[in-house]
Specification:
The chain has 299 residues and is mainly alpha-helical. The chain contains eleven helices and four strands. This is Integrase core domain-containing protein.
């Protein structure tokens, strides 16, 4: 067993620590690797932190702390893997940046999304097994769950009240194809607008430093855009449009319009009566639906 201070002069130890930290691994994973590679030293999370501080290595695991909401997409149906995959590809085209890890729910609707992610990681050869980058289950420190709780308190309960009024008054029939299309025509753009506002608020609010969490204090957008100011680094993988077009063709998610959920004739009549549903005030969405319901009938 090495002496208590011998590790301070171990250049190889410093090199290995820098390598593992640069791979954006969890602290528990780094600890496992250090126990394997340097068994002559005593290891625990506390000693790992002490070693990192000694060598001036800053650890921020960006799957955990940032709490940045990149985008929220409101759609007619989220159980179609083509819809989820297409939205993910749109996001990649917009940002041209691939994150190392992708946390998703386990289900068929995320299959295309996960396949796209693994395919791109494999092309860049940044991991021995790119499938390890797909993480299933709840988010670390319940970050996603906290976001959904905020969304529920600010938006979901408000819109559910309107929908409940329509349902109880028998003004909306969930089994009617026309009713579902009219409701979606009004509410999807309205809810999307309100979600976009909430995303901007969420990403600009200030996070306090929290004990026991590897989370820097500050504004999520700023931390995400300038990680170097907070002792971190951008671990994203730059993407090129050509490889995105390649994966779009191979995955088939861009084939056809999977978002065209409204009958063409119904959509034309909706546009005549309400050309800009995204401008409807949230409190007036119920009246906008009633307007369409009174004037549009299936032949």
């Amino acid at each position: 067993m090495a002496s208590k201070s011998e590790w301070m002069e171990d250049d190889q130890l410093e090199q290995y620590l820098e390598t593992y930290i640069s791979q954006n691994l969890k602290r528990s994973d780094v600890l496992d690797f250090m126990k394997r590679d340097f068994p002559q030293y005593n290891w625990s999370l506390a000693t790992l932190d002490r070693h990192l501080r000694h060598f001036g290595i800053h650890y921020i695991y960006y799957d955990t702390p940032l709490a940045v909401v990149s985008d929220v997409f409101v759609c007619y149906l989220n159980s179609n893997p083509l819809v989820v995959g297409k939205m993910y590809l749109w996001y990649l085209f917009e940002t041209e940046m691939l994150l190392r890890n992708l946390r998703v729910d386990r289900g068929t609707e995320t299959a295309k999304m996960a396949t796209i992610h693994v395919y791109l990681l494999n092309k860049h050869e940044v991991m021995n097994d790119p499938t390890d980058a797909i993480i299933y289950g709840p988010s670390t420190s319940n970050k996603i769950e906290r976001w959904w709780r905020e969304l529920h308190e600010r938006l979901e309960k408000f819109f559910k009240e309107q929908l409940t009024v329509l349902l109880r008054g028998r003004e909306y029939d969930p089994h009617s194809v026309l009713d579902r299309q009219l409701l979606a025509y009004v509410f999807i753009p309205v809810v999307q607008r309100e979600c976009d506002i909430l995303v901007r608020y969420w990403n600009s609010h200030r996070i306090r430093v929290q004990d026991k969490l590897e989370i820097p204090g500050g504004v999520p957008d700023h931390i995400f855009s300038f990680p170097g100011y907070y002792g971190g680094s951008n671990m994203g993988i730059p993407l090129h449009k050509d490889e995105l077009r390649e994966v779009a063709e191979l995955s088939g998610v861009m084939d056809g319009d999977v978002f065209d959920f409204i009958n063409p004739r119904v959509k034309r009549e909706c546009l005549q009566l309400l050309s800009n549903p995204e401008k409807v005030e949230s409190k007036d969405a119920i009246e906008a639906f009633r307007l369409l319901k009174r004037n549009i009938k299936f032949p």
